[in-house]
Design a protein that fits this description.
The protein is mostly helical. It is built from 4 helices and 2 strands, in the order H-E-E-H-H-H. The longest helix has 18 residues, at about 15-30.
Length: about 130
């Protein structure tokens, strides 16, 4: 799962990574049974929030990409209320995702059109 925050292109990789590290740490502290920043699989509980993906040259699977897994699930945006225990990413097949887009529209659209500045958020979080 990826949480994408659309920002203006004025910010450096270091600024975006710092922001991601601060937010990841806050989420992991607030929800220790749900999220973690712990790299060690032996110590990990919950979903890894990987702020390291915010760096030059890092790549992620694009939205609506077919994943190389049995059943060919599709990487798809979710509404926050859908993110809960028991969520099975394998359920999002091409047919299911096409129906979701017809019903809810493109949930990714805002990421492409919204641009936020990190300056105030970094000051508030530091």
């Amino acid at each position: 799962m990826h949480v994408l925050v659309p920002i203006e292109r004025r910010h450096t990789y270091d600024e975006t990574r710092r922001f991601a590290e601060i937010v990841a740490g806050a989420i992991a502290r607030s929800y220790p049974n749900l999220a973690t920043t712990q790299w060690s699989k032996a110590k990990r509980r919950g979903v890894l929030i990987d702020a390291n993906q915010n760096g030059e040259g890092k790549t992620i699977a694009s939205v609506y990409s077919v994943r190389p897994r049995p059943g060919a699930p599709v990487s798809t945006p979710l509404r926050w209320e859908e993110v809960k225990p028991g969520l099975d990413p394998a359920q999002f097949t091409m047919d299911v995702v096409q129906r979701r887009i017809a019903q809810h529209g493109d949930l990714f659209e805002g990421v492409l059109t919204t641009k936020q500045r990190l300056n105030e958020a970094l000051r508030a979080l530091s």
